Amino acid sequence: CSSTSDDADLATTDIPAEELYNQGLALRNEGRFREASDKFAELDRYYPYSEYARKSLINVAYVNYSRSKYPEAINAAKRFTTLYPGNPDSAYALYIIGQSYFKQIPDVTRDQQNTQRALSAFGELVQRFPDSEYASDAETKIRATEDQLAGKEMEVGRYYLKRDNYVAAINRFKLVVLNYQTTRHIEEALFRLVESYYALGVINEAQTAAAVLGHNYPDSQWYKDAYNLLQTGGYSPESDGGSWISNAFKGINVL
Amino acid sequence: VAPEGVPVIGIKAAQAAVASRIQVEGTTRIEDATVESYITIRPGQPYGPSDVDESLKALFATGLFEDVSISQSGGTLIVRVVENPIVSRISFEGNDKISDESLTAVVRTTERSVLTKAKVQSDVQNILEAYRRSGRYRASVEPKIISRDNNRVDLVFEINEGDKTGIERITFIGNEKYSDSRLRDVIRTRETGLLGFLRTTDTFDPDRLDADQELIRQFYYRHGYADFRIVSAVADLDREENVFYVTFTVEEGDQYTFGDIDVQTSLSAVDPEELRGVVRTDSGDTYDSLDVEKTLEDMTVEVSKQGYAFAQVRPRANRDFENRTISITYFIEEGPRAYVERINVRGNDRTRDYVIRREFDLAEGDAFNRVLIDKAERRLKNLRFFKEVRVTTSRGSAPDRVIINVDVVEQPTGEVSFGIGYSTSDGVLGDITIQEKNFLGRGQFVRAKFGLGESQQTYEFAFTEPFFLGRRISMSLEAYQRSYDANDFRQYDETTTGGSVAFGLPLREDELRLNLYYAIFNRDVELDNTTINNINVSAAIRDGLGTVLTSAPGYSIVYNTLDQNFNPNEGIYAKFDQQIAGAGGDAQYIRTTAEVRAYEEIYSDWGLIGQLRAGGGYITSIGNDLRVQEQFQHSQDWLRGFQTRGIGPRDALTGDALGGRWYAHVNAEGRFPFPWIPKELGLSGAVFADAGALWDVDPSINDCVTTPASCGFVASVPNVPSDTAYSGDTVQSNGFAPRASIGAGIQWISPFGPLRMDFAWAVLKEDEDKTEIFRLSGGTRF
Amino acid sequence: CFTTTLTHGHVISPDTVQDVQIGSSREQVELVLGSPSTTSRLEGDAYYYISQVTETTAFLPPEVVEQRVVAVYFDEEGFVRDVGFYSLEDGKVVDILTRKTRTGGADYGFLTQILRGAQNPSLGL
């Protein structure tokens, strides 16, 4: 009942782990990822508790990731972080998990689950291995995923604004202003607040939003639009100190 | 706790042995240190039988060891272990229907993990369960362990799948009011038949059986059987035959009608009388749970219009068992004052967020209204994009705030289908349809269809946007080209190329719709060269040759409560359509058509479905003369027993059918499944009676036939041999004369579309009519 | 019979608004009017209660027929400083800008859907 591949198995058992590992590395460097992945898997099978098993596991994750086989890469990386939590290579494993989810992020009109998972993986990487070589790239990826999540909130906010559901729209844009201040959507969120409050007739909030937009992003196109919009009613952006928008910005000097 | 080093009181000193050294034997892969770490006995420390027992238990708990024994010889404590082997390879043999990947997912033992008997046994059960799920109850699994060197083993699961366990028979016990075949149409589980290989719904699936019970319960509640109860739903397996017998035992109870209906409210400013207009459940009607539900919905919207967004409408029913009525009081009261904080849409990997969100009438920030949420859930399910739709609520950030979570599981919505049909009038015709219901996740419908037959070719393209400009108005575009060659029933080739844009407006949920449309098409009618100089082609037909552009706005009102569009069992379909040709183009006429179809199960023992159809139409010119090709023509769809174009006004000289400005028909039909043939084959019989008439040609056509000169056909007709005089004749059977026929037919729902054979005898006819007894037709109606 | 009316946002009945006097505390306001549609400043310098009634007749665009905003302004200690009303007349007509900030993420076009659809075509039965 044993198929031919089994016999090949028997032949390689006596190759020491280290040699198997080097063969895998060689294959990996030549870019022959599929064979490399089989070689590492084999090593992991024959010397499960050896030093090389650990190294080959992280390599299996890397190789699958470069073949964009994301589910397999994520599984291997996750097994690595659970088996060897303290090991410095766990940073790289977390990086691979984050990257694998990051590559599967859909556009903002669809479920952002992968964005969320990428964010938490990169977040854990930065928090547990702040000085790892992957921390800086993780930081940029965190900003990108937050930007995507903010984009989703904006998408739904605009959906409600178009249908004159001002309450729904304001609360969505408000969420972006409070939680996603470092993303590119902050300018548009402020502008949409000007539009919503203005349509509602609550002029002081509209003026405040426009003032904050002007103060923090003076040359942004969104500010020009906000300014023109208020002009149509003869109003001008001036901040009433108490408004929540200016306070939300007090703590952070965005410039 | 006893102080250090002093033996615990009660343990006799003799038993408290002491070991100076611990020695581990039998380990290959696992280090001795690991084994020692699990032993509670320390060298030089006294220990008792409980310590030994504890150590054994700890070692076994690791699952690493097949056997452990602890003994003492001299001063050393000997711990002998036999390690559990490590699994090096897992493989499956003999599995064809379920892939290795899905089996590995089901099996808990993994490569490089420790092999334990218990885990292998439970894996065998998991695999068997997987096969039961896919409808194979006769599968068997045999685990084989091949030992390799240094305590590694290969684990092979030898699987014998056995063939598919079908469902031999679905029987219902206790159902008098509705026949077995009618109820089989309600549930989704199907009997396995010849076409078993094509279907997946004919394998036994316990979840589907539960869903079926709910379907039957809903069916009875909708037909007045408020006391309906499912006594049992049993599926017993016949091992030898490898088939299931599914038996539903039901207790129908009596059919209830609505007693008196009342509307009461505790809200001061709400006037119950006003709300009475919205009630759908009128006393005397048969009880229908869906009508009650829809009344709740309409009433809630009506009340919230008057500013009571939190009103809750609850039906209070009380039964009168003697005369079997249920009277319902709709009670409107103040519901909990809560607001929707946020609507989360999750699981939509393909469908866009707004396609789901727009089905909700309420927005974030609005008052929380259970009925509107149920309505949205029902709408989402009707989209047929999702395998599963679950709308749940969770607490918001404040006590009066609620978060709505919409979780969807998507299903494939694309379809490629083939149809082959045959009709005596058009010969063999085949078609291929490519269709996508959720195009690019935008909820748009796209379909392309190519038809090819002996005497016809059709190309059709359709697109529908259900939410035009973000509002609940459907906008459909259609473009088509249909070309028919001349055959024994039609003297001329006809190619129509056209398109239309239509706006659909729901007047009442999905029952009543108003469609406003504009159609434009160009019809090119030519005599093929064999008949061109054939003298006996009616002058009226010749007059209508050439290309005619028709540009016609129009509207139609459609009322549709059919339970299913194809082979409906109950419900009514009615359509009134009026098309005004003349906004440009050559044709100028008003064309009015109407059609009503009603279905009902009239005799439950046989599962006899009665169908009553009536229809008619009138077309009149409002400018240019009407052409023969524009008039109504007889078709076997509305009057069987006659050849296509077999009745109606006819050119006496040439015998060509000219069609008429009026047509009307009435049809009665009874459809029944053949009792002894399994329903799965899709064979059903029918008996029918048709009556219809086609009459009154347009005066201009009449003149053209009687005096060809009036429509430009002088004695010598261009390219007609000059020596033949072309004299006109009269139009036969131009007056109203009802024809009738009775007959029987067999319908077979083949995998390539339905085929229908009809035998009809004309019992009432005019002598010029051309009858036809046998007729074969195919292709889906809708 | 073609018009459908929908009420959106907060339900404010005129008599309850009278109960909110200057000087009453934040909790009293929440007790009377419920939690606000949206708040101003993090710990709520102003509560906004927004309600709206729209009417849609047949295929015409939905029309806002009534819109009321009740603004409750608090002072530093959190007591009501002022109560403001805005109605439909105050609302301004705004044609909403269609430009939007670019976002990432893989969108899929016609082909990917067809290919993915082709993996499991259903046999139209």
In what order do the strands lie side by side in the largest sheet of chain B?
A: 18-19-20-21-22-23-24-25-26-27-28-30-31-33-34-35
Our estimate of the beta-strand percent of chain C is 25-35%
**Mean residue pLDDT of chain C:** 77
How many angstroms separate the termini of chain C? Answer: 40 Å
How many angstroms does the end-to-end distance of chain B come to? 86 Å
**Any low-confidence stretches of chain B, pLDDT <50, length ≥5?**
1-14, 715-725
The helix/strand class of chain B is: alpha+beta
Cα-based radius of gyration of chain C, to the nearest Å: 23 Å
For the largest beta-sheet of chain B, the strand count, sense and barrel status come to: 16 strands, antiparallel
Biggest beta-sheet profile of chain C:
5 strands, antiparallel
In oligomeric terms, what are we looking at?
heterotrimer
pLDDT averaged residue by residue of chain B: 83
Q: Quick one: how many beta strands of chain B?
A: 35
What are its keywords?
heterotrimer, A: 255 residues, mainly alpha, 13 helices, C: 125 residues, alpha+beta, 5 strands, 18% helix, 33% strand, disordered C terminus
Describe what you observe in this structure.
The complex is a heterotrimer of chains A (255), B (782) and C (125). Chain A is mostly helical and 255 residues long. Helices cover 74% and strands 0% of the residues of chain A. In chain A, helix 9 (166-179) packs antiparallel against helix 10 (185-200). By secondary structure, chain B is an alpha+beta fold. In chain B, strands 18-19-20-21-22-23-24-25-26-27-28-30-31-33-34-35 form a 16-stranded antiparallel beta sheet. A three-stranded mixed beta sheet of chain B has the order 2-5-4. In chain B, strand 18 and strand 19 form a beta hairpin. By secondary structure, chain C is α+β, with helices and mostly antiparallel strands. Chain C contains three helices and five strands, in the order βααββββα. In chain C, strands 1, 2, 3, 4 and 5 form a five-stranded antiparallel beta sheet that branches. In chain C, strand 3 and strand 4 (63-74) form a beta hairpin. The two termini of chain C are 40 Å apart.
Topology of this structure?
The complex is a heterotrimer of chains A (255), B (782) and C (125).
Chain A: H1 4-12, H2 17-29, H3 33-46, H4 51-66, H5 70-83, H6 89-103, H7 113-128, H8 135-162, H9 166-179, H10 185-200, H11 203-216, H12 221-232, H13 244-250
Helix pairs in contact in A: 2-3, 2-4, 3-4, 4-5, 4-6, 5-6, 6-7, 6-8, 7-8, 8-9, 8-10, 9-10, 10-11, 10-12, 11-12
Chain B: E1 17-18, E2 21-25, H1 32-37, E3 46-47, H2 49-61, E4 65-73, E5 76-83, E6 86-93, H3 100-106, H4 117-133, E7 140-147, E8 152-160, E9 166-173, H5 180-186, H6 206-222, E10 229-238, E11 243-251, E12 257-265, H7 272-276, H8 289-305, E13 311-320, E14 325-334, E15 339-346, H9 353-357, H10 370-382, E16 386-395, E17 401-410, E18 414-423, E19 427-439, E20 444-453, E21 456-465, E22 474-484, E23 492-508, E24 512-527, H11 529-532, H12 539-543, E25 546-560, E26 571-581, E27 589-603, E28 608-621, E29 650-651, E30 662-673, E31 683-695, H13 699-706, E32 731-732, E33 739-750, E34 753-764, E35 774-778
Parallel strand pairs in B: 2-5, 6-8, 9-11, 12-14, 15-17
Antiparallel strand pairs in B: 1-3, 4-5, 7-8, 10-11, 13-14, 16-17, 18-19, 19-20, 20-21, 21-22, 22-23, 23-24, 24-25, 25-26, 26-27, 27-28, 28-30, 29-32, 30-31, 31-33, 33-34, 34-35
Chain C: E1 3-9, H1 14-18, H2 26-33, E2 38-40, E3 46-57, E4 63-74, E5 80-86, H3 110-119
